[in-house]
Amino acid sequence: MSATSETLENIIHKEYKPGFVTDLESDTFPPGLNEDVIRAISGKKNEPEFMLQWRLDAYRHWLTMTEPTWAYVNYESVNYQSISYYSAPKVKEGPKNLNEVDPKLLETYKKLGIPLYEQERLAGVAVDAVFDSVSVATTFKDKLASAGVIFCSMSEAIKEHPELVRQYLGTVVPTSDNFFAALNSAVFSDGSFVYIPKGVRCPMELSTYFRINAANTGQFERTLIIAEEGSHVSYLEGCTAPMRDENQLHAAVVELVALDHAEIKYSTVQNWYPGDEEGRGGIYNFVTKRGDCRGRQSKISWTQVETGSAITWKYPSCILRGEESVGEFYSVAVTNHCQQADTGTKMIHIGKNTRSTIISKGISAGRAQNTYRGQVKILKSAENARNYTQCDSLLIGDRCGAHTFPYIEVKQPSAQLEHEATTSKISEDQLFFCQQRGLSAEDAVSMIVNGFCKQVFKELPMEFAVEAQALLGISLEGSVG
Amino acid sequence: MDYAEHYQTVSTDLPGHSLSWLQALRTRANIDFSTSGFPSPREEEWRYTNITPIEKKRFTPKVSAGDPSAAAELIQHHRLDDTWSLVFVDGVYSAGHSRLTGLPESIQILPISEALERYPEKVHTMLQQAADCETHGFIAFNTAYFRDGAFIVIPDKQVPERPIQLLHVSTQAEGLSVLRHLISLGIHAQATVIETYVGEKETACLTAAVTEIDLAANAHLDHYKLQNESDRTFHFGGIYSDQKASARFRQNHAAFGGLMARTEIHSHLGQAAECDLDGLFLASGRRHLDTHTILRHHGAHAVSRESYRGIASERGRGVFSGRIVVDPQAQKTDAEMNNRNLLLSDDAEIDSKPQLEIHADDVKCAHGVTVGQLSAESIFYLQSRGIDEASARNMLTFAFANEMVEKIRHDGHRQQVRDALLANLPQTDVRGDWL
Predict the structure, then answer these.
(1) For chain A: N or C, fewer Cβ within 10 A?
(2) Domain boundaries of chain B, sorted by first residue
(3) Distance between B328 CA and the closest CA of chain A, angstroms
(4) How confident is the model over A371-380, as pLDDT tens digits?
């Protein structure tokens, strides 16, 4: 191996910084899943009767389903009876304001660098933080309320805005959609709810921070974003978890609804604990994300930077129903050590003149497997639909794998589709050129990798882009070769 | 599955029944087939091709030699003059129609039914080497019930002076042709093999052919296939090749006929092997044409190029699935796959699934897919030169497809493929003098 391989090695091996555990008293259900557990979750949240029924229907359907095995990932299957389906930091009553939130919890978020306090206004981001299963605090509520925006936890939304929840929940990802979505529908404990009224441009970026803290718990959050006619919202999501030897399950569902001329931008920086170098521990990230462009000229844009999780199974999708609606998917997926990612998107073109763009960058190092799996489907009604797909993979080291499995289905002759994919490694020439200009091998690799991902990073909101670049450096630490 | 039972009862008198190893092989394949049945769209590799119509029918193999004159005209028209040819009528070798005059003794070209009597040991070593019954039900079906096929062995350093044609003609309604071809080229040997599949109009039958190819080091095979069977035929053709070091395999596939047809071309590439796959399909009428390729780069420094073009018109449906697998030790692999498709009508459909599965880092791999329609500008340009719209469309469609036809190096075969292409263009009546 050349000098550069050693540098890559150094870049790959960096520790997982958010891997600490917060010692909090928490209210956790004993492991196991049955109808009583679901009733108990629903009861804990004082949910209306229709929600309980909805959960039970989902659970009964889930019982008839089997875990999907088609993804290019290998893992010991999950024992769904050994997981605790509800864990919450113990509080006597719901916190009225931030001062009532457990200081240890705030400490945790501070360590993670999340601006919970309003004095950190400069950051200009409204945060809803979800700790284990429940939402602990939402900042900037008043300012958002004055614009008419509803940004709160899902359980609050179920209580305060049941009509909206009832109208939209499960309409994009039905309870019977897939194994993990059905499970999530049955047991979801919290999540974020966003409603942007007609014609409103959300005054600030909205953000959710997810944290799994307790051991042996699963996190099942549910996010629902509704953008009414002519509205605009940008939403960010971040995630971390402590380092533990056993695997933990995260099965979230995200539903987006964009009505006429509305635009939703959804960005994720996923940094769940990826397990150690030997592949012990880490989060199983089985997520269903789907956006529905219901209205004319609506737009949904997914941007994701996936660096964490032991197993990732995630396909943020767009249903392009409205005429001239637009779907976008920008993704950087980094896998290192023994991580496995099977991720991509689905673009379902239904309306006329719909357009979609897919840019996917996969980086695989160590012994990791990184798979792009995407589907572009053009139905007969989608006249003049247009899709452009580009998926590039970068291999670092000779023991990793990078795979591309696109599915292209076209039933409309006026559609235009292009798909391109390449796989390569960082060329010696590129490295040599950079080094010859005085860059260290490590900097050269990091520069090349950042350049490789730039198309995606430029889609991220400013503060996230910085974080993403830093994360990329950490994830690949020690992998330069 | 009662159809599995049916095929078991009708498949009597299969060749090689005195060979115990073959009987054992067939029994095992039969068990595999009875368990799995024909592939279903639930299997990932068959998700776009639903062959349940085959399960509903009961095809039967030809029982007697039949009337030799029945297929004479088709054979006359498709047999290439400058080749040694083996002709199979409804899945049975027809010595009367085949032409093997002037064949040197060192080269073996004979029907497998005969080879099983004369060289059973050689057949034993070749059979089931490149194809695996466990892949899917069709291969098991073929192994269990193959009635005939070609047996071609070219020894080291030999280059036959003529190409070899395998001509398949189906004439019998509800007929069943199950063929197994074995092709083996020794070190530095070279050969050209052309497989032609044609049928009487309106004959609904099932053709299930499996070709196993073994290429020794530095061998070079040019392989062509034309599938132009009748509108109601079901066709499955699997071509499985094993390329040793520096062996070269060039395959060109053209599909125009059948009701539902699938061709699989899988190759296993050894060190510094070269593989060129080109193909064309035109799915008109209610046809469903499926091309499925897997190239497995096993040795380092191998090079592969794939270029497939598809056209779907009327209610036709075209499926392309291509997979390139690069094993961990296959460093310096250079692989490219390209799939371009034309969708010509509202009721047509194209499904494409190009896949890369890469386990080595020092490789160059790429694939590209496009799906679109004829460019309005090009049609307008031709119209502005006084060409009517239908002719302009045909001209552009032909030009798109002809690039694949031009790659065929054998004149006679190229002419046949071009004729089949022209006959299947959407507006056949406006074939102008522009050729």
Answers:
(1) N
(2) 2-430
(3) 7
(4) 999 999 999 9
